[in-house]
Amino acid sequence: MAETALLGGRIRLYRQMRGCSQIELASAVSIRFAELTAFERGRARICAALLNRIALFLEVPIQSFYADLPDQQLPICSGRR
């Protein structure tokens, strides 16, 4: 997914702008180094709660991760089960 790669690239960009290593960030948000690497490379999707912890640690607004991401056409839920 292109969005996953863009989001991961932004995590890496903001981490580098803050001068933080992957090991430091992974430790700060309680994930393994390998997980962070997968997120940054766009090989794994990240949950909203973890992205929020990353944003708080890097001191960037969570909205900045989503700025200019391509819009998706999502199916509309009917509300029925």
Describe this structure in words.
With 81 residues, this protein is mainly alpha-helical. The chain has one domain (2-63): lambda repressor-like DNA-binding domains (434 Repressor (Amino-terminal Domain)), CATH 1.10.260.40. It contains 5 helices and no strands. It has helices spanning 2-17, 22-28, 33-40, 48-58, 63-66. α2 packs across α3. The longest helix has 16 residues, at 2-17. Residues 11-65 form the HTH cro/C1-type domain. This is Helix-turn-helix transcriptional regulator. InterPro entries: Cro/C1-type_HTH, Lambda_DNA-bd_dom_sf.
Summarize the structure.
By secondary structure, this protein is mostly helical. It has five helices and no strands.
> How far is it from the N-terminal to the C-terminal residue, by CA?
28 Å
Radius of gyration in whole Å, from Cα? 14 Å
User: How many domains make up the 3D coordinates?
Assistant: 1
Largest sheet: none
**Helix-strand category:** mainly alpha
CATH topology name, in short, is 434 Repressor (Amino-terminal Domain)
Features:
81 residues, 434 Repressor (Amino-terminal Domain), 0% strand
Please render the helix and strand layout as text:
Blueprint lengths: L1 H16 L4 H7 L4 H8 L7 H11 L4 H4 L15
Helix pairs in contact: 2-3
